[in-house]
Specification:
The protein has helices spanning 20-31, 34-46, 49-77, 81-124, 131-144. The chain is mainly α. The longest helix is centred in the last third of the chain and has 44 residues, at 81-124.
Length: 146
C-alpha cells in the first residue's frame, strides 16, 4: 500500500502532489502496455505501415485533446476527475454519472484483458480447458489479484 493518503474526496495538497517525472513515467508505462502491442499487431495485419501510423496518430491526438484540458485543470487545482466534474457544473448527480461511465468502461476493459488471458491460457494448454473455462479461471484469477 502506498504511503500517500487517498484524496478522492478533497483537494490534494501541494506537498502530496507527484512530480512531472513521476507522472511522465506512468504515461510511458501506459504506452508500453499489452493493449498497445495488440493494437500494433491488429493494425499491422489490417493496414499498410503508413495507414497504421496515420490511424494511431489520429487516435492518439483525439485522446490527448480530450484529456489535456481535464489534466491541466486537475493538476492546477489538485482535484480528482470526480471532484473536478462536480465543481465544474455537473453537480453531485452529474459527477456520479461521470463515475458510472468510467466504471463501465473499466469493466469493459477488464473483459478485454480477461479475454486476452483466456485465449493465451487456452492456446498454451492446447485447448485443454476450452475458452469458456479458461475465461472463468482467468476472470477469477484477475478478480482476486489486488
Amino acid at each position: 500500500m502506498s504511503d500517500h493518503a487517498s484524496y478522492s474526496l478533497y483537494r490534494v495538497p501541494l506537498s502530496a502532489r507527484l512530480s512531472l517525472l513521476n507522472v511522465t513515467l506512468i504515461r510511458i508505462g501506459q504506452m508500453t502496455s499489452l493493449s498497445q502491442f495488440m493494437l500494433g499487431a491488429m493494425l499491422g495485419h489490417a493496414m499498410t505501415f503508413e495507414q497504421a501510423m496515420i490511424a494511431t496518430l489520429c487516435g492518439t491526438l483525439i485522446l490527448e485533446l480530450l484529456s489535456l484540458g481535464l489534466g491541466i485543470a486537475g493538476a492546477k487545482e489538485g482535484l480528482s476527475i470526480s471532484l473536478l466534474s462536480r465543481w465544474c457544473g455537473f453537480g453531485r448527480l452529474g459527477s456520479s454519472l461521470v463515475g458510472i461511465i468510467i466504471a463501465v468502461s473499466l469493466l469493459g476493459w477488464f473483459g478485454i484483458q480477461n479475454s486476452i488471458l483466456a485465449n493465451s491460457l487456452n492456446y498454451s494448454t492446447n485447448n485443454w480447458f476450452g475458452f469458456s473455462w479458461a475465461a472463468i479461471i482467468s476472470g477469477l484469477t484477475l478478480g482476486c489479484v489486488p
